[in-house]
Amino acid sequence: LESFGVDPAPLLAEFGIRPDFFADPENVLPFATMGRIFCRCVERSGCSHFGLLVGRRAGVSALGAVGFLMQSAPDVRTALDELVHYLHLHDRGALVSVETGGPYASLGYTILQHGVPCSEQILAGAITIGLNIMRGLCGADWKPEETHFAFRGPEDVAPYREFFGPRLRFDAEVTSIVFPSRWLDHPLPGADPLLHRLMEERIGELELRAGEGLVAQVRRGLRALVLTPDCTLDAAARLGGMHGRTLNRRLSALGTSFFELREEARREVACQLLERTNQPANQIAAILGYTDASSFTRAFRRWSGTGPAEWRASRAGRPATDGWKRKAPKGGSA
User: Fold this and answer.
1) Can you give the CATH number for the domain in which 293 is found?
2) What is the mean pLDDT of each run of 10 residues along the chain (334 residues)?
3) Residue 140: its pLDDT value, please?
4) In what order do the strands lie in the sheet with 104-111?
5) I want to staple 176 with a disulfide (CB 3.0 to 4.6 A). Which of 61, 108, 119, 330 is the partner?
């Protein structure tokens, strides 16, 4: 904000935040609050790519203890696996995913809840940090092969091309950077086995203190699995190192089930894609594993009391406060 000649102090005071709050990377804010802050920053700066500018100033050090663990890892693959498993200690409102297999891999970031204000700004900032993390691990000249954004394209894409390169894809399922898989085996210059063990112990202490329960763990896992063909009970159980029957029994004892949590994940992803992107409903249905658009429509009516097209239209009618000029959705089955 200061670079735009705007004093940040009144804005922070508006949200009850101390001026030194962001100096400590372990301090976190609820996503809804963060979204509202971004909305106000866009308004006061007049900059529609404010989130990207914020992300450009941050890298792996912004992740606190998780960042130190990653930097001391032996290679990029290990560092990214640790980011996937431990980001919830630093950021409980989002999920990091790493997709591998074939000549390309991807590093993705997903907000877990739909309806977060200015989510496009948060996603743009997060994937910008993701690129900085990859450059920190692989070298300053590292570049993504392609960058995907799970939101509609802004009016001015030039700032995105300048930072990410020319190959941009908006209206994607996941905000992610795509890169050659060979980078996963790239050794890290800061690899330090002793420091890595010490940081693992520190992370273990933080996990015990955080006390994330089984339901929260399954929810996080399903948000990644729901975009794959293998969103099954056994696949979810494997993420937790157990058998499907064991997972179902433990979830039942907690008053829920795998199938309820999978429907919840599908609902959240469907709402996010309808709200943020122009993807047609029949394409969203296929992404979420429905056999046809009519099955998806029935499920969506059960969740929300209205069809996908009507729900999307009602959301599009809300004021745009995130710096994006809304474009009319493309047609599709609903």
Assistant:
1) 1.10.10.60
2) 86 87 76 90 93 91 88 96 88 87 93 88 96 93 94 93 95 96 95 93 79 80 86 88 89 92 92 91 90 91 92 70 39 33
3) 85
4) 94-99, 104-111, 175-180, 146-148, 168-169
5) 108
Query: Long-range pairs for 68-71 at CB < 8 Å and ≥24 separation?
Result: 68/195, 68/199, 69/196, 69/199, 69/200, 69/202, 69/203, 70/133, 70/137, 71/136, 71/137, 71/188, 71/190
Residue 141: its pLDDT value, please? 82
Place of tokens 């006390």: 211
Is 183 within a domain? Answer: yes
CB of 146 within 8 A of CB of 167? yes
The pLDDT value given to residue 330: 38
Residue 209: inside a domain: no
Residue 3's pLDDT is 84
Does the residue 110 lie in any domain? yes
Q: What is the pLDDT of residue 31?
A: 83
Given the structure tokens 């997060």, which residue do they identify? 126
CA distance linking residue 32 with residue 50, whole number of Å: 17
**pLDDT reported for residue 202:** 87
Long-range contacts of 88-93 (CB under 8 A, 24+ apart): 88/210, 88/212, 88/216, 88/220, 89/65, 89/203, 89/206, 89/207, 89/210, 90/25, 90/26, 90/28, 90/63, 90/64, 90/65, 90/66, 91/28, 92/28, 93/30, 93/31
Angstrom distance (rounded) from CA 75 to CA 181: 13
pLDDT score at 315: 82
Number of structural domains, the chain? 2
The single residue listed with the structure tokens 């940081």 is 199
Are 31 and 174 in the same domain?
A: yes
Strand runs labelled E in 125-218 = 146-148, 168-169, 175-180
| Bridge partner list, 175 | 109
Say whether both 75 and 187 belong to one domain: yes
Query: Is the same domain home to 186 and 224?
Result: no
